């Protein structure tokens, strides 16, 4: 995945300056799910402040799912579902790779319902390229195309790509509290 991330901050005179310009520090490419990649672009906590020194939070992030009041900004490339349906696909190896590379998120996926998961977040998703289908746990499916937006309110869901090309989606996850 090729992504350019430009980050701003303030200098000692409180003037806006560029802090960095280049690839994000946390991009993961998956060996056991060919064509899948993800980039954690930035993260904030409930106590994040602006105006001070800016340090890249992505390398130290312990979870791809933010806590209540925090945010995670990411891009995910979903390969076609046919990748997971091929005879050479090893779901055990893929699952281990998810746990290693997507801590905090991988644990939300259900073993008995592949792809299904739920997080305590409000997710803003924007399809940047391709098509992806959002499947809810009641069986309803919506096809999303380039520039379609979804607001995912902590519901149980799965992302599917029945097409022949990868789909690229930008997500902002906003950590929330779940009501009973």
UniProtKB/TrEMBL annotation:
Q: What is this protein called?
A: Cupin type-2 domain-containing protein
Question: Which SUPFAM superfamilies does the entry mention?
Answer: RmlC-like cupins
Q: Record's Gene3D superfamilies? A: 2.20.70.150, Jelly Rolls
Q: Where is the Cupin type-2 domain?
A: 116-172
Sorted alphabetically, which Pfam families does this protein's record hold?
Cupin_2
CDD domains, sorted: cupin_BLL6423-like
């Amino acid at each position: 995945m090729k992504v350019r991330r430009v980050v701003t901050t303030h200098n000692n005179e409180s003037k806006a300056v560029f802090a960095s310009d280049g690839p994000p520090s946390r991009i993961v490419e998956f060996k056991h799910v060919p064509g899948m990649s993800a980039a954690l672009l930035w993260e904030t906590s409930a106590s994040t402040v602006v105006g001070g020194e800016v340090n890249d939070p992505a390398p130290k992030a312990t979870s791809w799912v933010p806590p209540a009041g925090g945010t995670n900004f990411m891009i995910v490339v979903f390969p076609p579902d046919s990748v997971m349906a091929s005879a050479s696909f090893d779901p055990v190896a893929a699952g281990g790779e998810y746990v290693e590379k997507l801590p905090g998120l991988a644990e939300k996926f259900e073993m008995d319902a592949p792809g299904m998961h739920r997080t305590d977040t409000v997710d803003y998703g924007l399809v940047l390229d391709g098509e992806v289908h959002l499947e809810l746990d009641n069986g309803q499916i919506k096809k999303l195309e380039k520039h379609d937006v979804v607001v995912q309110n902590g519901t149980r869901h799965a992302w599917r790509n029945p097409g022949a090309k990868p789909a690229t989606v930008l997500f902002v996850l906003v950590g929330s509290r779940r009501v009973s």
